[in-house]
Amino acid sequence: MNEKQACVSIRNVSKSFGKHVVLQDISLEINEGEIFGLLGPSGAGKTTLVKELAGLDEPTKGENYLFQEKMPSLQLIKRIGYMAQSDALYEDLSAKENLQFFSELYGLKGQKQSQRIKEVMELVKLSGDVTKLVSNYSGGMKRRLSLAIALLHEPELLILDEPTVGIDPVLRKSIWKAFTDLKAQGKTLIVTTHVMDEADKCDRLGLMRDGKLIAVGTPEELKKQTNTATIEEAFLVFGGVER
Ligand SMILES: Nc1ncnc2c1ncn2[C@@H]1O[C@H](COP(=O)(O)OP(=O)(O)OP(=O)(O)O)[C@@H](O)[C@H]1O
């Protein structure tokens, strides 16, 4: 069963901002090569947790390990692709210039750089808009460009915070196809989402509420355990809400 190694290990992690407890004693292992979904309502703590995994914040208590190394770690940055909830793009530059800037940061140069830029823009279906200024991009296009940037350096672990917000269903489908292709290449993906049909596409899910991890399992396991037909209903049962 456990033939794959855990590439993420979250150990008794808590986080507070002043008196506000945002994460409460979270322990979780995410295996190499799986698509792991973090599902929960707004304010559940998903972003706080994935920011720690990306090395942008630290727990108040407990530890996060990526590839058996404690985070935050500068050495690990190249092995991670992180897509934040709000797009961190240079609006006054074209998409290509943005991609070139981030490529340089990752040490991608020359032919390899041009090749990767072409590949990632094809993947997110923005090949026709490479020279357009980002300020002229729609919200969904910016999300896709952020995803392209996260993929540039071919990271082993992708941490994607609500990657499909503002993206229409057709494109959402093609982006999920890209996720499953990346998984087939052996990559690990952590995806936060509110969207229930996306949750069903994950190999395993962690359900979060009020800073707690209230259940972990495959979508099928979670439905079976709660005797429900949908993840949405399963969530309500785990959360103690009467149906
Ligand atoms: N820097 C901060 N200072 C104070 N409180 C914070 C900070 N960052 C997050 N919080 C609080 O932590 C809680 C969890 O926020 P977080 O963004 O992790 O939730 P989320 O599950 O990602 O929600 P959403 O789906 O809306 O993005 C919220 O109550 C938020 O206000």
Describe the protein's architecture and organization.
The protein has 243 residues and is α/β, with parallel strands linked by helices. It has a domain at 6-89 and 155-238: 3-Layer(aba) Sandwich (Rossmann fold). The chain has eight helices and ten strands. The chain has helices at residues 46-53, 95-105, 110-123, 139-151, 169-184, 196-199, 219-226, 231-238; strands at residues 6-17, 20-31, 35-39, 61-66, 69-70, 80-83, 157-161, 188-193, 204-209, 212-217. It has a six-stranded mixed β-sheet, with helices on both faces. A four-stranded antiparallel β-sheet has the order 2-1-4-5, with helices on one face. α5 links the parallel β7 (157-161) and β8 (188-193). α7 crosses α8 (231-238). The chain starts with 5 loop residues before the first strand and ends in a 5-residue tail after the last helix. 37% of the residues are buried. The protein binds adenosine-5'-triphosphate (ATP). Adenosine-5'-triphosphate is lined by residues 17, 20, 22, 40, 42-48, 85. Adenosine-5'-triphosphate (ATP) binds next to β2 and α1.
Which key terms come to mind for this protein?
six-stranded mixed beta sheet; P-loop_NTPase; Rossmann fold; single chain; ATP hydrolysis activity; four-stranded antiparallel beta sheet; ABC transporter ATP-binding protein; binds adenosine-5'-triphosphate; nucleotide-binding; 243 residues; ATP binding
